Amino acid sequence: MLKRVTRLVPRACQLDPGHFLHGGPQAPQSLAARLDDQVPDENPRAGSHPSEDDPAGAGEQREGRHYRIPLQDLPTVFPHGLPRRFSLQVRTFNEACLMVRRPALELLRHLDDTNFAHPAVRYVLYGEKGTGKTLSLCHVVHFCAKRDWLIVHVPDAHLWVKSSRGLLRSAYSRRRFDQPVEAANWLKSFKTANERFLSQIKIQETYMWNKRESTEKGRPLGEVVEQGLTRVKNATDAVGIVLKELKSQSCSGAFRLLVAVDGVNALWGRTTLKREDKSLMAPEELALVHSLRKMVRNDWHGGAVVLALSQTGSLFTPRMACLPQELLGKEGFDALDPFVPILVSNYSPEEFESCIQYYLENSWLQHEKAHTEEGKKELLFLSDANPGQLERLCAYL
Amino acid sequence: MATPCVSCGAAAFYRLFLGGRVSLTRRQGVWKAGAVELQTGTGFQILRLRHTTGVTTKKNVAALRRETYTVDFIKKQIEEFNIGKRHLANMMGEDPETFTQEDIDRAIAYLFPSGLFEKQARPVMKHPEQIFPKQRAIQWGEDGRPFHFLFYTGKQSYYSLMHEAYGKLLEAEKRQNQLQAKGLFSEKTETKDLIGSRWLIKEELEEMLVEKLSDQDYAQFIRLLERLLTLHCGAEEEFVQRFRKSVTIQSKKHLIEPVQYDEQGMAFSTSEGKRKSAKAEAVVYEHGSGRIKVNGIDYLLYFPVTQDREQLMFPFHFLDRLGKHDTTCTVSGGGRSSQAGAIRLAVARALCSFVTEEEVEWMRQAGLLTADPRVRERKKPGQEGARRKFTWKKR
């Protein structure tokens, strides 16, 4: 209890950049983030700030509260992962606080109970636009990172099928196309996120990059990653190799593997990329997509797969589509077939209240009516308790 | 006589006044729509309005002078109108004796449907007194001597009215003095007559007196009448009421929807709203939690723009009932903004049934219950749009 009080008092001072009154170990940990909104805390005294760093926290009583992620964790766990608006908020408030919500808690509970001998279970987060799928995914990723899992995190698969420059014919397979830029970016983030594993994992095959360069069996995975980063032309193949190795080796039990993909419906949708003869490509023809599809299959064990659907960046899907059936299409649905769907919905009244409290504490809402009941009712009506909308509305106040 | 085209078996045809009222302005003002030509020749009289614009030439000077209608002429018009009314009643298969002006209007609208927007431009058949402006009969006799004793003041009716009013004032004062002397005077305040009525405006008074007035004359007259009212005499009330016009309060014309009950016993109320070309129907339930469904879709998804949702919020927020009602709406037509406006109107009207009279009046004053009359303006030829002209090129 005392811990909490001491944390509350200097809260106001924390808004100064880089001025942590508490020491490092006390820094908040979990990131129960939601897409845009923070759910206000139920506990009036402690405001919306949890003192827990553990993302799993204490379960149900954490629901509705905010978790803080230590700022030094952010670059390592999420080198590219956070949504744009949320990272702006992090920069503004100088802290990364996510709200714990039921879908994320459910997922964490499932992950805790996974039986690593069974094939990887696939969890699909779906819901309306702006309800918090991506941030729930981030919550799970942080949780696993804290538990020392190996994270394969694709922040937005839509970026890989849209407007990519520099498509090359794959050297490995004539039918497919490489995307050096995206692959290189991803490798960089992967490296930052999983530094410690790169030296531990050893590859099990020899890979020939070209006539002169090759990586032998037994070398650490880090070398493959380096190769991909230095020789950008081989980046896509490097990605493919990394994924294959991870998949085959996760069964051994040396590490736990978490595959987190956001916007997974891009893998089975359509692309806007064109071949040389200006005809549209199908996603299978992209090597990155191909390798990711293989990753998402449940023919391996020793980890879990958490996916989030997204209509916002998707191509050629109607605006109202939010169900897995609609967004994934028949092909995607069949490919993912035995999965656990998790619905992410709008805020409940308590969560809404908690979010408003969080904003008020951070002095984000400057309007004089924001404190009053009428003001809150107005906000509730206008945003319909949708986290995304609420965040956008509060930005003006 | 050439028979008219209407096959009704009657020889004389009723007269239609096409082109609305023949309002000859008394002012020799800017527009010189002067001449009303009477074409008599075929027993078929049509009045046509001939506009004479432009510079007055010698030929048109006669047309500038106001056309005078003789008393005989007016009498003849009245007779013809009555006969025509009976013919019309026969044609419509109704009883000529009880054929009122509303029936005439309906019959004409049926026989001569017009799509013109300007109501006064449509065919109309009314009593000649409403069509022809009131004119003064000749004011002097054969010997040239005027009839009225105040003729040489120039405004004989006005001054005679003032004279009459002042006479009444003096009488009332005399009576009051007598009552006070007898001690029977009692202070009565009867202001109920004044509420809900207003004085005639200057134009209306001019019309009544068939004479031009100046502003000062009018003000003087009203002051005199008000002074008369302060004396609270019963006899003069009738005289003063002639110069007052009642003002109906708008809100009383409101139709408040009845509250209906559905199977589960939930109270709800339905009403419609329109805006531009969007039509909406809203069903507001009395008890709920503030959920709104539009065409079966949640309002957050149907109106992604905040502005539209603010429009939906307005009626509830105004009455401070934000989270208390559930609503289901159907809307079609128009664009996103007009659909939002239509739903807003429908919701406001539906809420009237759950709310007190006073709040209904507040809503009306806030403009929630008025249908927005703005529609898309027509594009005119010679212009690019309704207002935008083509790019002006110097050569």
From TrEMBL, chain A:
<dbReference type="InterPro" id="IPR008092">
    <property type="entry name" value="Ribosomal_mS29_met"/>
</dbReference>
<protein>
    <recommendedName>
        <fullName>Small ribosomal subunit protein mS29</fullName>
    </recommendedName>
</protein>
<keyword id="KW-0689">Ribosomal protein</keyword>
<dbReference type="GO" id="GO:0006915">
    <property type="term" value="P:apoptotic process"/>
</dbReference>
<comment type="similarity">
    <text>Belongs to the mitochondrion-specific ribosomal protein mS29 family.</text>
</comment>
<dbReference type="InterPro" id="IPR027417">
    <property type="entry name" value="P-loop_NTPase"/>
</dbReference>
<dbReference type="GO" id="GO:0005763">
    <property type="term" value="C:mitochondrial small ribosomal subunit"/>
</dbReference>
<dbReference type="Pfam" id="PF10236">
    <property type="entry name" value="DAP3"/>
</dbReference>
<keyword id="KW-0809">Transit peptide</keyword>
<keyword id="KW-0687">Ribonucleoprotein</keyword>
<dbReference type="GO" id="GO:0003735">
    <property type="term" value="F:structural constituent of ribosome"/>
</dbReference>
<dbReference type="InterPro" id="IPR019368">
    <property type="entry name" value="Ribosomal_mS29"/>
</dbReference>
<keyword id="KW-0496">Mitochondrion</keyword>
<feature type="region of interest" description="Disordered">
    <location>
        <begin position="38"/>
        <end position="62"/>
    </location>
</feature>
TrEMBL record, chain B:
<dbReference type="GO" id="GO:0006412">
    <property type="term" value="P:translation"/>
</dbReference>
<dbReference type="Pfam" id="PF00380">
    <property type="entry name" value="Ribosomal_S9"/>
</dbReference>
<keyword id="KW-0689">Ribosomal protein</keyword>
<dbReference type="GO" id="GO:0005763">
    <property type="term" value="C:mitochondrial small ribosomal subunit"/>
</dbReference>
<keyword id="KW-0809">Transit peptide</keyword>
<dbReference type="GO" id="GO:0003723">
    <property type="term" value="F:RNA binding"/>
</dbReference>
<feature type="region of interest" description="Disordered">
    <location>
        <begin position="374"/>
        <end position="395"/>
    </location>
</feature>
<keyword id="KW-0687">Ribonucleoprotein</keyword>
<keyword id="KW-0496">Mitochondrion</keyword>
<dbReference type="GO" id="GO:0003735">
    <property type="term" value="F:structural constituent of ribosome"/>
</dbReference>
<protein>
    <recommendedName>
        <fullName>Small ribosomal subunit protein uS9m</fullName>
    </recommendedName>
</protein>
<dbReference type="InterPro" id="IPR020574">
    <property type="entry name" value="Ribosomal_uS9_CS"/>
</dbReference>
<dbReference type="InterPro" id="IPR014721">
    <property type="entry name" value="Ribsml_uS5_D2-typ_fold_subgr"/>
</dbReference>
<comment type="similarity">
    <text>Belongs to the universal ribosomal protein uS9 family.</text>
</comment>
<dbReference type="GO" id="GO:0005743">
    <property type="term" value="C:mitochondrial inner membrane"/>
</dbReference>
<dbReference type="InterPro" id="IPR000754">
    <property type="entry name" value="Ribosomal_uS9"/>
</dbReference>
<dbReference type="InterPro" id="IPR020568">
    <property type="entry name" value="Ribosomal_Su5_D2-typ_SF"/>
</dbReference>
